[in-house]
Amino acid sequence: MASKVLILGGGFGGFYTARKLEKHAPADTTITLVNNTNYLTYAPLMPGVAAGTLDPRHIVMPLREHFRRTQLRVGWVTSADPAAQQVTVEMVSGHEHTFDYDHLVIALGSVSRTFPVPGLAEHGVGFKTIEEATALRNRIIHSMELAEGLDDPFERRSYLSFVFVGGGYAGLEGIAELLDFADDVLKLYPRCKQTGVKFTLVDIMPRVMPEIQAPLSEWAMNLLRKRGMEFKLETSVKEVHEDHVILSTDEVLPTRTLVWTAGVKASPVAASLGVPLDRGRIITNPALQVDGFTNVWAVGDVAAVPNPAMPGMPCPPTAQHAIRQGNLLGRNIASALKGGEVRPFTFKTLGSFADLGRHKAVANLMGIKVKGFLAWVIARTYHLAWMPGWDRRIRLLTDWTVGALFPRDIAEMTRIGHIPPLDQPILPPAPAKRELPAVTEVPGAPESRSGTTVA
């Protein structure tokens, strides 16, 4: 009798699991992948989308184009019954469907990790999805258009001040790219140029990017300070308001754009799947099997896979770990279907890097510190190597080449995707604070990450 493998989530972990299963599973195996979009986002390149140097379509891979045997179903996972070997999904059509399985792979990824900060949900914006990255670019342009029309310089300040919370890879790469973007287009806004833009990064830690060596972290901060960025370290956000932020030091920062990049946590959908959790992540053994089950597996951000490099700790939520785990899991399930043995996850991080814009980056490669232009070349080469499909690689190269030769595009595309009724005129856009979705947790969201750790 043919076996059924059901994969929940189409991020790096789920995608690579399916690809390996297609190659190694018995020919009569049915592989089904459920995801809430029909594409995989190459999240480390989202800062380029927000800065307008990359087309959003060029960092996403349509899943159907890369699958030969896998059946894609678009929907949201709502619950599971491991005893009955069933998963309930709300399909994109709105109908509820129950999937049966012989082997289940949970690869639901992560969501933004938020805290009960007053006003954060109402006024904060995220930076974890392609939609948020695109909207953030429009938000900055719209803020400049609003500020350019104001006569009062003091009133312009809140529209031209941008605050990022979180000094990890996502926060640092995102704020660096957007600072460059704002500096490049400022000359087109005379009044805004007179007032100037201000970018501030707030983090509770004593330095940014604690994952890399302190000298590289300090070099990155000094580089960005020279470009006008401010750092508020060992500081947290106490309150978020429509036009200002109050820090834990009681300092008030005028801003209408607070971007939340303070880490991720496992998808909350995991709690409804009937599997054991450790601080929200699914407990697995080194072979990626969920604790207490032989036919349920977990991979990526949602899984607490034992870290070979740090005994007693789970693997970090990075793209390189999810990719390696997915490749191994595909082989393990295929082996289990054939009655063979499964292998443990043994991959160890070899390095990491962060792109700081303007042909500069920092990189830690097997303990070797690299910075500046060479690190930037390494980062670009790495992204090209891991981007699935030659068509996407060529598109990336084209975007980067065009960005180097021509000025940035400042067309504000806020209304794209929002079709007005035929009998109504196009209305003015909503206030700037509502152009981006609030920082919320989206059940069943695909895996995505910013910042990069190097294989």
Keywords, separated by commas or semicolons:
FAD/NAD(P)-binding domain, globular, alpha/beta, 455 residues
Provide an overview of this structure:
With 455 residues, the chain is an alpha/beta fold. Helix content is 30%, strand content 25%. The protein has a domain of 182 residues: FAD/NAD(P)-binding domain (3-Layer(bba) Sandwich). It contains twelve helices and 26 strands. The longest helix has 19 residues. It is globular, with a radius of gyration of 22 Å. The C terminus is likely disordered.
Residue runs with pLDDT of under 50 for 5 or more positions:
432-455
Describe the global form: globular
Distance between the ends: 39 Å
Strand order of the largest sheet: 7-6-5-2-1-8-21
**Count of separate DSSP helical elements:** 12
Cα-atom radius of gyration: 22 Å
According to CATH, what is the class of the domain at 4-112 and 265-337? Alpha Beta
Q: Kindly identify the CATH topology of the domain at 4-112 and 265-337.
A: FAD/NAD(P)-binding domain
Strand content: 15-25%
The major pleated sheet works out as: 7 strands, mixed
How many DSSP E strands?
26
Give me the CATH superfamily of the domain at 4-112 and 265-337. FAD/NAD(P)-binding domain
Class of secondary structure makeup: alpha/beta
Overall mean confidence score, pLDDT: 89
CATH architecture heading of the domain at 4-112 and 265-337: 3-Layer(bba) Sandwich
Indicate the percent of residues in helices. 25-40%
